[in-house]
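So, could you explain the following?
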Amino acid sequence: MEFNDKIGNRESEVEPDFNIFITSLSMQAMIFLGEMANPITNETKVELPRAKYLIETISIIREKTKGNLTEEEVKLIDDMLYTLRLKYAEKVK
């Protein structure tokens, strides 16, 4: 039995995608920066160590994938890192 058979073949589900992955990590960082409400608790809470961890993780992904990304992916990850680093710097002031 294949994985799709176990969960049901859902053709409408989104396929894994680098842009979605990076956006997901960035959204989690924004939640930990207190810029977005947690979708589960609907609360806004600043958790700088977790935000920093995610920002550094995205930065590591950027370094390790250098030369293997499309122009669109490079722009997305660079823009996300710029925004997240700026927001983080504002929070630690």
About this structure: The chain has one domain: 16-92. Residues 71-92 form the longest helix (22 residues).
